[in-house]
Write a structure and sequence with these properties.
The structure is a single chain. It is built from 11 helices and 8 strands. By secondary structure, the protein is α/β, with parallel strands linked by helices. An 8-stranded mixed sheet has the order 3-1-2-4-5-6-7-8, with helices on one face. The longest helix has 15 residues. The N terminus is likely disordered. The site of iron/sulfur cluster has 15 residues, from loops.
């Protein structure tokens, strides 16, 4: 774990100029997590936590696509029993704001900041994490919305924690490569969504560009570095364009991950604006999804 932590920093240092390298390399009294926090704060001033790369100075209260300034807020935190069986009870922290705008989002009120939320105080959150662990939590699960805009706060929460518990990054995986480097070595489990099998569907339903190349890059990085549980929410009328290429890519590139094929799609939020998404899955679609998984040879299903 420590080695991958150092390798992650090395990858990040490689893209910094010499002044930055010198500044960080002489900071011998600091821990690696301290350095990651400093690097995250630097990114915050020209934000590229995700691949939208808005370039806004969030420390100066500017906001980019996600609408989040430097202050992280959360909508709720509790022991969640609805996650994958090996993870529950999972101490789940729902951060406000998202880097996607999914037409069918079930957490649209959190993602779109309709819920204003409680400001995150890292030391206080670390106390809450310790309390939840005492209550039986098997892990800490950072989600939203999306955790990516809150990387700087999450690293500070980790730094303030004085208990040993697995850290879960529950994400759409549209993180920048710099964010993936900062996560390297501090995340134990990536609980990752694989939503679309092509860029056209991703742009149409989540308003996001270059989805396939960015997320598959990040799945490979996560796979090198930690445990991965991949979730695919099967969408109605998207078996051949999305489910099939996703399953086949996983089988070819990262076959040993745990794979959760999810059938619980429901037409939330603005799904009614897309007639092809405005219903639940049918029996034949579930049968076909299972057939695609079987034909690809994926075995490690959740
Ligand atoms: S985290 Fe938010 S502000 Fe930063 S690049 Fe992504 S969308 Fe833009």
């Amino acid at each position: 774990m420590i080695m991958s932590f150092v390798q992650g920093l090395d990858r990040y240092f490689a893209v910094l100029n010499n002044d930055h390298k010198a500044k960080y390399l002489i900071a011998k009294e600091k821990s690696l997590l301290d350095l990651k926090i400093e690097l995250a704060n630097n990114i915050l001033q020209s934000c590229h936590f995700c691949e939208r790369r808005c370039g806004v100075n969030r420390l100066a209260k500017e906001v980019g696509y996600c609408g989040v300034d430097a202050i992280s807020r959360y909508a709720s935190e509790f022991l969640h029993y609805g996650e994958e069986s090996e993870l529950v009870p999972s101490h789940t922290i729902f951060f406000i704001g998202c880097t996607f705008t999914c037409a069918y989002c079930q957490n649209w009120d959190i993602a779109n900041r309709v819920v204003t939320g409680t400001p995150v105080l890292p030391e206080r959150m670390a106390e809450i994490i310790a309390m939840r662990k005492y209550q039986g939590a098997k892990n800490v699960n950072f989600v939203g919305g999306e955790p990516t805009p809150h990387l700087h706060s999450i690293l500070r929460i980790m730094n303030a924690c004085n208990i040993n518990t697995p850290m879960i990054w529950n994400s759409n995986m549209y993180c920048s490569s710099e964010t993936m480097d900062l996560l390297s070595g501090v995340i134990d489990i990536y609980l990752a969504d694989f939503r679309y099998g092509n860029d056209e569907c991703a742009e149409k339903y989540s308003n996001v560009k270059d989805y396939w190349s960015i997320t598959t890059r990040n799945f490979l990085l996560a796979y090198e570095d930690a445990e991965v549980i991949l979730r695919h929410l099967v969408l109605p009328n998207h078996l051949e364009c999305c489910t099939k290429p996703i399953v086949e890519w996983i089988a070819e590139h990262i076959p040993r991950i745990r794979f959760n094929l999810m059938f619980q799609y429901a037409p939330h939020y603005k799904a009614s604006q897309h007639p092809e998404l405005n219903r639940r899955l049918g029996y034949e679609e579930r049968r076909r999804a299972l057939e695609i998984v079987r034909d690809a040879g994926l075995r490690n299903l959740v």
